[in-house]
Amino acid sequence: MVKKTRILCLHGGASNNDITAFQTMGLKLGSRMECIYLNAPHLSRCCYPGLDRLSDGPWYIWSDISKGLEHQEDQWDESLEHLAKYCKENGPFDGVYGFSQGTAIITDFSHPNIWKDKFKMKSCPWKFAILACGGASHQVTLKRGMTVKIPSFHIWGKKDRILNDSKTIAEYWDPPMRVTHSHGRGHEIDVQMCYREGEMMKKLSKFLDDHLDSNKGLIESVR
Predict the structure, then answer these.
(1) Contact between 46 and 109 (Cβ < 8 Å)
(2) How far is it, in rounded angstroms, from Cα 132 to Cα 188?
């Protein structure tokens, strides 16, 4: 029996799995892998502006950045535990995708300080990461200079008002194993992106070809 190729998908702050599903459609990830969606464990009082046009909610956060630092740290720890429990019960996965605040928790979890030392896992629960429009970089608990040594694909928005978060997140990932691409818009991955950003899709296709067992190119699905 052929093992299914799977990617775990994590939403941004004040968002949910519905929104992540639109993003994975925009990147055509479902054409190569089964997308597995996980909501954060904490409810948000409202959504990120505009998302209520795409989903009825409820909305979730990995940590409430509007709260004090101590409250944020407690929520972040609970979110890491939530992610570890899910991965132990449902993993491992071939890859992981995250948007905004989701990129921060993936960055934290992907270092052996977390999956190995904190949660006693035998290996990282994914082999590569796709990180879109980074956010909440201040919540990453890794010290500067600590490097995540798995392949990563970073998507930045040229007009993203928090572009520096994307760049800060990327610095934690091993440079020789890191690919970056900037799309022409802001803090977003929309369903039309695969048609509008041809160069990005070619780079993403090659990245997946390099790190998946499948030989089928992603670009074929958007022609």
Answers:
(1) no
(2) 8
* Angle, helices 69-90/101-110, rounded to nearest 10 degrees: 70
74: which residues sit within 8 A by CB, 6+ positions away?
Answer: none
Token pair, residue 105, equals 């928790």
217 has pLDDT over 70? no
The DSSP result for 165-219, as a single string, is HHHHHHHTB-GGGEEEEEESSSS---TTHHHH-HHHHHHHHHHHHHHSS----SG
Measure the CA–CA gap between 166 and 170, rounded to whole angstroms. 6
Q: Compute the chain's Rg from CA coordinates.
A: 16
User: CA-to-CA distance for 183 and 199, rounded, in angstroms?
Assistant: 9
Q: How far apart are the first and last CA of the chain?
A: 30
Provide the whole-model pTM: 0.93
Closest CA to 138 of 180, 168, 118: 168
Task: Calculate mean pLDDT across residues 132-151.
Answer: 95
Pairing state between β 6-10 and 95-100:
parallel
* Average pLDDT for the chain: 93
pLDDT per position as a tens digit, 77-98: 999 999 999 999 999 999 999 9
User: Rounded to whole angstroms, how far apart are CA atoms 213 and 140?
Assistant: 31
Q: H or E stretch including 76? A: helix 69-90
